[in-house]
Specification:
The protein has 386 residues and is mostly beta strands. 5% of the residues lie in helices and 35% in strands.
């Protein structure tokens, strides 16, 4: 049975209290934690914007990359002089830079607030799984990123079925999984196995959550570096709501976690958005399984099409990169879905005033107060919805 209608709003109110509650429980609120995970801080996405600044102009704006349809490849540079090759995940880190997982070039790129793009880790076109510093490291189809308050960046190294960590200084290490070994084993991270994981998110207690895409499961790596499956069943693609292992997902590609411990999943193969409560209960909060569409509305009346990216803002809104529709959707605290950027069915990048246009957006991140950053067809864009 679904919870009463007033509970989503009550839950969102509780989220705003939860950081204070957690600080009383943790021995060193805001400091480092075991195995090198920094505490997640939802507010660091906004800390570069002063609260008294006017709201930014709405629209779609270029940060880096070029609209030229033949301008592919991976090239460091500034603004339209930079090139990206299938950028996917994006995260706004505490140092003020955006970090981008560039799938085809097997690199992690860094984009400064001034739009200067550089290669942070990996070497263009050099596929592998080696740990190391900067361009000595190797990745294989990295897809999603997360950052902690200490400046570490976490990577789902999808082609290697690994979870990697990059220190603020650029040193790459492997946290969990074994290169090239697709599996579903839980346990110590050295013995655990993943299968083409994509989404990754960090909670305030230092736990990493992973959308283990081809296992159709949601995994957790705790502060003791132990991997467990919290929802779904390995190898079972489905759409059932339920608790823990009774629930089913189909190729989930991104994940977010809020201050109260609720986990949100872009269940890409089902074209739905799912919510996992702290007690493990899974429910569908937007879309209908197997129904690709673009309708706005509340919960089951809304339709999405292969959503692949998620971002939570400080007001409790969940933004969705609705890849199959070429749009950005917003799910508010009452689970009402609206289209805020782009035109459904028009897969075309259009800069300027809203509604603008996007070509198969993949990654999305909060980018200061009232703004988002997104990856779409070899571009990194700033999006400002109303």
């Amino acid at each position: 049975m679904r919870p009463p209608a007033f509970l989503p709003a009550l839950r969102r109110f509780a989220k705003r209290l939860s950081p204070l509650i957690l600080c009383t429980m943790l021995a060193a609120c805001g400091g480092g934690v075991a195995i090198g995970f920094g505490y997640y801080d939802d507010d660091f996405d906004d800390h570069h914007d002063k609260p008294d600044r006017p709201a930014p102009e709405t629209g779609v704006f270029l940060i880096a990359g070029d609209l030229c349809p033949t301008c592919g490849g991976s090239l460091d540079g500034t603004g339209s002089g930079a090139r990206f090759d299938a950028p996917e995940g994006i995260v706004n880190a505490p140092d003020g830079n955006l970090y981008v997982a560039e799938k085809n070039s097997a690199t992690i790129r860094r984009v400064s607030p001034q739009g200067v793009a550089t290669t942070f880790a990996g070497s263009v076109g050099a596929i592998g799984s080696q740990d190391g510093a900067g361009n000595a490291a190797r990745f294989n189809t990295p897809t999603r990123l997360e950052a902690d308050a200490d400046g570490n960046v976490y990577v789902t190294d999808t082609g290697n079925s690994l979870i990697r960590r990059i220190s603020a200084a650029g040193a790459v290490t492997t946290l969990a999984g074994a290169a090239g070994q697709c599996g579903s084993a839980d346990g110590d991270a050295r013995n655990a196995r993943f299968c083409s994981p994509q989404g990754i998110a960090l909670d305030r207690q230092g736990n990493l959550y992973v959308a283990d895409t081809l296992n159709h499961t949601i995994r957790r790596i705790d502060r003791a570096n132990v991997v467990s499956t919290i929802a779904g069943a390995a190898g079972s693609c489905g759409s059932s709501d339920g608790r823990g292992g009774a629930a089913r997902f189909c190729e989930p590609q991104d994940i977010e976690v809020d201050n109260a411990g609720y986990v949100y999943v872009a269940d890409t193969g089902n074209s739905t958005i799912r919510e996992i409560a702290p007690n493990g209960d899974v429910r569908t909060i937007a879309g209908a399984a197997g129904q690709c569409g673009s309708a706005d509305g509340v919960e089951g009346r809304a339709r999405l099409c292969r959503p692949a990216g998620l971002a939570l803002d400080g007001n409790g809104s969940l933004f969705v990169a609705d890849t199959g529709n070429g749009t950005i959707r917003r799910i508010n605290t009452s689970n009402a879905v609206t289209t805020v950027i782009g035109v459904a069915g028009s897969q075309n990048n259009v800069l300027g005033p809203l509604p603008g246009g996007l070509n198969a957006p993949r990654g999305i991140a909060v980018f200061g107060a009232g703004a988002l950053a997104a990856t779409t067809q070899n571009l990194v864009l700033k999006l400002v919805p109303r």
